[in-house]
Amino acid sequence: LIKYFQFLIGNEYLKAVDTAFAKDPDTNKYIYPAAHEKKKNRDRILFGKLRGMQAHPFLRPGIFNINCNTLRGDLFPGHFDMLNETLNKSPESKILWLWGKLDETVPYADNIKNVISLDEKNDNLEVKGLDRIGHESPYEDSKLLSSLTISFLK
């Protein structure tokens, strides 16, 4: 059974890469096809999906643990409450929230209203929706993220 779950985690994670990268809404083609392929190939190596390559020994258990104990949907309201509490208790702490508008993994369209409500109540939170970016923003356009982060830190 454990081997089956390890196989399942690897396969589903590799499938998730396809969802995580932004697709043009008009053409349904990847906006950053080279970045998508590079990430998918890197993950194939990490999961031991290429001949002669062994899977990283801690990757599957790490993903399993994150999904069970951190990213479960029923925990999201608590995470949101913690962020709100942190923003209120530490007004000197500034937070930049960069989010791809084409994110389907954590759907931007379904969740942005909640985040904007925090942004409107807190001067120490800056939310930026990124056009033509999905969930894998660092792989999709690292220059854009770097530029926005550097500007925020100045």
Report on the structure:
This protein is mainly alpha-helical and 154 residues long. Helix content is 57%, strand content 8%. The chain is built from 7 helices and 2 strands. It has helices at residues 2-20, 33-46, 59-69, 76-89, 108-121, 137-140, 142-153; strands spanning 95-100, 125-130. A two-stranded parallel sheet has the order 1-2. Strand 1, helix 5 and strand 2 form a beta-alpha-beta unit. It is globular, with a radius of gyration of 18 Å.
Strand order of the largest sheet: 1-2
Low-confidence stretches: none
Structural class: mainly alpha
Overall mean pLDDT stands at 89
Shape: globular
Blueprint (SSEs and pairs):
Blueprint: H1 2-20, H2 33-46, H3 59-69, H4 76-89, E1 95-100, H5 108-121, E2 125-130, H6 137-140, H7 142-153
Parallel strand pairs: 1-2
Using brief descriptors, characterize the structure shown.
154 residues; mainly alpha; two-stranded parallel ribbon; 7 helices
Quick structural summary:
With 154 residues, the chain is mostly helical. The protein has helices at 2-20, 33-46, 59-69, 76-89, 108-121, 137-140, 142-153; strands spanning 95-100, 125-130.
